[in-house]
DNA sequence: GAGTTTGAAACT
DNA sequence: CAGTTTCAAACTC
């Protein structure tokens, strides 16, 4: 730095110290810590301890959880990093001083930057240019809320990440540094906003933007702070120039990070994640690199996530950074999802109103972001989320697939059900996708879910007539993907009986449903729960997955691949008399499983496995199917069987495979709501998403699930099923298939499975409990 | 789109 | 538990 510059800076700094900006900064530091605490708590609360009830709003929680988890993870990593960083230490002393010092932080930050070296500056400089760009861009993208959004998010995330109220001083120091960066970001945002805002709302918009996120994150200790903040905002508007100048003066590194974040956000739509990353990352020397990387990432984001991944691989040095970026993206994706949901999580409040207004934008942006990002590899295609969601949004969740899944969460998760909910769902799925994608590219299951959701959100709604809906569904489902989103067409059952697929799946009915006099809605949650209880009292397994994978059967598989289907069985068996178990009338067939001894079917020709154990899928099946068929049916069956054979024969051996196997449903695809439900809807849903999205998440989720199905768990762990597998299972295939697998947690159900199922059922009970 | 078939769910 | 009815999905035309 040139001395003159320094002098100027010092002078400017002195000026600024009094300026509202500093006040703002000061105010920020305290705020963040506060948030962090609550968040952590929420997270804990959210933690898997107990799967949300189906009808409750598991989804949301799940999403939130995922989001939090991710954040936390980053934090964890970030913190350590920070600690490791000497720079932080240097600052820590200052930081530790107190909030009041915060104002000085900027100066200190500048100093740091200076100390750190030119490199930082360079980075900062580059960034600055970018910032300008951003500022220019932001206005375009974000009119009012959006701009504010990102910034707040950053702060929020930072908070969440850094939060640590009770943490040791060192932690605090970290936090503060983070805060600095955050604060800087915030300032940056302010500037941007100021620049942008002149147009309309200005401070308010920004404020609003903050609020949404802020709710969780930005909690003002006192109302005064908030107002002060606003005042700052206003002032900032007035003093945009000063801010800009100030910005230029501010530590570039931090600034850059923040900006990058913003840019990313703008691009991706989910600034939060990026921000988080920034926050998480210490300002250390790596920070500069990160900055650069971030910039690069920004550019990359538009391209593909994969590319990023590759890049990561490329240089070890940058690996960490890259990794973050990836994480970021991942996180972003998730977060996006979560945001959607979570915005809820931390932001539930997140300006619902705003969201509604912005949601579309966000969604679009997010989606675009996702897509841009790469649409994660595997994921790509199917939205598992739906599946998870589907059911109880819980489900599958994911599956969420369907809005129904959403159904569970009346409030938040359920939201999906509503039109807005749909949007959410759509988002969820997307997120799920994103989540999933990153993790499991290959996972098929996910896709289904995701897609459904997407489609649901998008199009179906318009269709009014049930049939149209059905047709649409069929179309969607046919691909085998939309399963997640089932829709019912109940007219007399009020969707409070097992006749109703939605209800049976433990999911609330959503718009796409063509049901009449539907009581299976969050509004009637009490009724739904009561009814459920009633039904469960009669039959505890009523809501359990109908198709269960049996470990017992496994041996069968080993014996005969053909028999593999047997590995999975219908819980109670079918009772078909005329369909020869070759049509979807047959639950076994529908579930993609072979008939078993428990079936009372007549003339069983189940392509997946006959009751007598005779050739399930083999040639026979084909021929039989052909016979059975009815042309289209036969063809479908053949296709299915073929598919099954392909994948199934191979896969079949593995129980998991079953779940994985493309179900016959493909034709219809109802999703595995059942499975979702069984799993405990939301939990599943979350799991799927999580699993896909986050390895961590998936793991924990998996644990969760695993815990649920005791018996099966072992099997699952046995190796067949992994959380991922579960996710997969959920995806594409028919409801049952996925459900069984998923239910199991992935493991199949057998008869033993039933018992397990019962255990799993508890998840359902959760529903009851939830209320 | 309307109507029929089918089998699960519900009821007795 | 068995038989019957109700129901909604699956299927056909």
TrEMBL record:
Signal peptide positions (record): none
Chain intervals with Polar residues compositional bias: 729-749, 760-771
GO cellular component, one term: nucleus
Residues annotated as transmembrane: none
Ranges for region Disordered: 73-109, 332-358, 729-771
Biased composition annotated in UniProt, kind: Low complexity: 340-350
Sequence ranges assigned to domain CRC in this UniProt record: 484-609
Localization terms from the record: Nucleus
Top-level lineage group: Eukaryota
Keyword list, A-Z: Nucleus
Similarity comment: family membership: Belongs to the lin-54 family.
PANTHER family, A to Z: PROTEIN TESMIN/TSO1-LIKE CXC 2, PROTEIN TESMIN_TSO1-LIKE CXC 3-RELATED
Name under which the protein is recorded: CRC domain-containing protein
Originating organism: Flemingia macrophylla
């Amino acid at each position: 730095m040139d001395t003159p510059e320094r002098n100027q800076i010092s002078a400017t700094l002195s000026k600024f110290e009094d300026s509202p900006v500093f006040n703002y900064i000061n105010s920020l530091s305290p705020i963040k810590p506060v948030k962090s605490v609550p968040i952590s708590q929420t997270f804990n609360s959210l933690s898997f301890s107990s799967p949300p009830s189906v009808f409750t709003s598991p989804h949301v929680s799940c999403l939130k959880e995922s989001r939090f988890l991710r954040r936390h993870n980053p934090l964890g990593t970030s913190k350590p990093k920070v600690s490791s960083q000497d720079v932080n230490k240097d600052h820590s002393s200052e930081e530790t001083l107190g909030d009041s010092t915060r104002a000085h932080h900027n100066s200190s930050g500048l100093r740091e930057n200076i100390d750190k070296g030119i490199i930082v500056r360079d980075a900062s400089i580059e960034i600055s240019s970018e910032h300008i760009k951003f500022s220019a861009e932001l206005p375009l993208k974000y009119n009012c809320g959006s701009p504010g959004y990102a910034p707040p998010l950053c702060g929020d995330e930072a908070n969440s990440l850094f939060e640590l109220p009770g943490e040791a001083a060192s932690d605090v120091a970290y936090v503060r540094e983070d805060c600095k960066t955050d604060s800087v970001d915030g300032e940056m945002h302010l500037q941007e906003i100021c620049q942008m805002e002149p147009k309309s709302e200005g401070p308010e918009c920004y404020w609003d933007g903050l609020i949404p996120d802020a709710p969780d994150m930005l909690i003002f200790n006192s109302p005064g702070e908030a107002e002060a903040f606003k005042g700052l905002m206003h002032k900032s508007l007035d003093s945009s120039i000063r801010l800009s100048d100030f910005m230029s003066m501010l530590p570039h590194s931090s600034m850059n990070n923040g900006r990058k974040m913003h840019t990313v956000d703008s691009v991706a739509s989910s600034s939060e994640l990026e921000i988080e990353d920034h926050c998480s990352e210490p300002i250390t020397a790596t920070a500069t690199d990160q900055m650069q990387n971030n910039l690069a990432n920004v550019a990359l984001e538009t391209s593909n996530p994969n590319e990023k991944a590759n890049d990561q691989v490329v240089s070890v040095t940058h690996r960490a950074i890259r990794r973050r970026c990836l994480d970021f993206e991942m996180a972003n994706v998730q977060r996006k999802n979560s945001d959607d949901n979570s915005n809820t999580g931390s932001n539930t409040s997140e300006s619902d109103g705003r969201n509604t207004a912005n949601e579309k934008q966000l969604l679009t942006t997010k989606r675009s972001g996702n897509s841009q990002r790469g649409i994660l590899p595997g994921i790509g295609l199917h939205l598992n989320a739906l599946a998870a969601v589907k059911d109880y949004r819980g489900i599958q969740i994911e599956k969420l697939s369907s809005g129904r899944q959403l159904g569970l969460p009346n409030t938040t998760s359920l939201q999906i059900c509503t039109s807005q909910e749909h949007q959410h769902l759509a988002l969820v799925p997307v997120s799920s996708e994103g989540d999933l994608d990153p993790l499991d590219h290959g996972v098929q299951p996910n896709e289904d879910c995701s897609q459904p959701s997407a489609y649901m959100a998008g199009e179906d709604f318009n269709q009014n007539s049930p049939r149209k809906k059905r047709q649409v569904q069929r179309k969607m489902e046919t691909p085998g993907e939309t399963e997640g989103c089932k829709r019912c067409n109940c007219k007399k059952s009020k969707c409070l009986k097992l006749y109703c697929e939605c209800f049976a799946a433990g999911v609330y009915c959503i718009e796409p449903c063509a049901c009449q006099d539907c009581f299976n809605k969050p509004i009637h949650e009490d009724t739904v729960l009561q009814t459920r209880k009633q039904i469960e009292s009669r039959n505890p397994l009523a809501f359990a997955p109908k198709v269960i994978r049996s470990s017992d059967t496994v041996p069968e598989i080993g014996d005969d691949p053909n028999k593999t289907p047997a590995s999975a069985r219908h819980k109670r068996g079918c009772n078909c008399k005329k369909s020869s178990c070759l049509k979807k009338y047959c639950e076994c067939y529908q579930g993609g499983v072979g008939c078993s001894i428990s079936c009372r079917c007549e003339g069983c020709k189940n392509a997946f496995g006959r009751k007598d154990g005779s050739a399930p899928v083999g040639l026979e099946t084909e021929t039989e199917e052909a016979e059975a068929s009815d042309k289209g049916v036969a063809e479908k069956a053949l296709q299915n069987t073929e598919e099954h054979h392909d994948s199934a024969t191979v896969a079949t051996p593995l129980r998991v495979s079953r779940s994985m196997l493309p179900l016959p449903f493909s034709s219809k695809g109802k999703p595995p709501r059942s499975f979702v439900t069984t799993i405990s809807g939301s939990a599943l849903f979350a799991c799927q998403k999580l699993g896909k999205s986050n390895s961590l998440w998936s793991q924990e989720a998996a644990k969760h699930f695993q815990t649920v199905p005791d018996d099966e768990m072992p099997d699952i762990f046995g190796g067949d099923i992994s959380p991922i597998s579960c996710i997969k299972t959920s995806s594409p295939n028919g409801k049952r298939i996925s459900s069984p697998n998923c239910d199991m947690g992935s493991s199949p159900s057998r008869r033993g499975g039933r018992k397990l199922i019962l255990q799993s059922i508890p998840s359902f009970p959760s529903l009851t409990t939830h209320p």
